[in-house]
Amino acid sequence: MHISEIYKSIYRYWDDTTPLYGDCGKLCGKACCESDETDEDETGMYLFPGEEKLFKEDKNFRVVSSDFSYGDGKIADIAICKGPCQRDLRPLSCRIFPLIPYYKNGKLTVIQDPRAKHMCPLAQKKALSYLDPAFIRKTEQTFRLLLRFSEVRSFLMGLTEILDDCLKFDPTEDLI
After folding, report:
1. How far apart, in Å, are the Cα atoms of 146 and each of 48, 62, 64?
2. Complete edge-to-edge strand list for the sheet that includes strand 61-70
3. 3-class SS at 68?
4. What is the pTM of this model?
5. DSSP character for 18?
6. How far apart are CA 151 and CA 148, in angstroms?
7. Backbone dihedral region for residue 81 (phi beyond 0: left; psi -120 to 50: alpha; all else: beta)
8. Residues 6 or more apart in contact with residue 69 via CB below 8 angstroms
9. What's the pLDDT tens digit per position in 84-118?
10. Which is nearest to 4 in space by CA: 62, 43, 58, 42?
């Protein structure tokens, strides 16, 4: 099975899973899923290795190279949303937001993404107890599966270096 097929299975696994028991977009006015095509501050979400194949031709996203390189110099791609979110078409980074895998010294943990603190109320320490435990569990299970792929391991090690840089500014950040 090719990794892009595994992502499709993962997306089905995530179909009805959200960070809260309801619509988390009610807390923040859908800050992460109401992209405006005219917004000059284009932001996007990293695509995990192999996932970019699913979005290169998707009319709902524009895929661009990032400045994040990992492993032997591979460049990570970013998916930039072109409008209101179609939940069933989201990349994995969107599905797990505001959590992020943290892979260091061969150990996988899941943390609240420190880069999300200014956008998402659920990325605050106090919000951790409100996250659906199934959401946290699925995030960890998903990345335990994806760690079987060496390119994903390499990507997560590089991503963890980025997260470590962010965490330097908030050393009290709790790991989940």
Report:
1. 9, 24, 22
2. 45-46, 74-81, 61-70
3. strand
4. 0.85
5. -
6. 9
7. beta
8. 75, 76, 158
9. 777 778 899 989 988 999 999 999 999 988 888 77
10. 58
